[in-house]
Amino acid sequence: MKINKAIFAGSSTRVSGRPKPKLPEFAFIGRSNVGKSSLINMLTGRSSLAKTSSTPGKTRLVNHFLINDRWYLVDLPGYGFAKMSNEERRELSDTINDYLDNSGELALLFVLVDSRHEIQRNDLEFIATLGRDSIPFAIIYTKCDKMGPEALKRQIEANEKILLEDWEELPPVFASSASSGAGREEILSFIDTVLNNL
Ligand code: GTP
Ligand code: MG
Description:
The mean pLDDT is 94. The chain is globular, with a radius of gyration of 16 Å. It is an alpha/beta fold. It has a single domain (6-197), classed as Rossmann fold (3-Layer(aba) Sandwich). The chain has five helices and seven strands, in the order ββαββαβαβαβα. It has a seven-stranded mixed sheet, sandwiched between helices. The protein has helices spanning 36-44, 86-102, 121-132, 149-164, 184-196, and strands spanning 6-12, 25-30, 62-67, 71-75, 106-114, 137-142, 173-175. Helices cover 34% and strands 21% of the residues. Helix 3 links the parallel strand 5 and strand 6 (137-142). It binds guanosine-5'-triphosphate (GTP) and magnesium ion. Magnesium ion (MG) is lined by residues 36-37, 58-59, 75.
């Protein structure tokens, strides 16, 4: 799929405040600093569409980006960021949960996992809630430029073993790098297939 047009459509903290019109949404979630906003910029080819930062906890709102006037990429706040007051953490988790519970337009959720480490307990807990709520998802490993091909393969296989302890089948899996652009074609063509099957 070619992205001809990508525009920021609006920010909200609750689904009731999201931009119109209603169109299919592909949302990105994962631990804070995993590279959600960077991946959105890489996929759209617009380097500063979504705000990125080396400091975790950058994205606090639900940001909608309208793609080709036909669907949205949605940048969600990260989970699992320790350096936050309880109140801030509660508000972020309310924002995320409201989106997951009430976004009738969510076509698919991409859960981003850092390719450099074993999948973390809070990733597994989060993925378990998706199973309970029957939310369709795929996993994208990020920052693959930091890994050699063999180490990447080993890490993904180790994570698959861990996931298979709880899941009968594995979700679709992609490896990406916002720096090199790796994974771009695969992820966009997967989105295209999902859109064509809605
Ligand atoms: P929050 O909004 O805070 O939850 O973070 P985020 O998941 O949106 O992460 P963001 O895209 O802001 O990136 C966090 C840091 O990781 C930044 O310093 C990025 O430059 C870096 N980063 C993101 N993706 C990649 C990647 O593929 N490779 C490398 N080497 N660095 C990356
Ligand atoms: Mg972000």
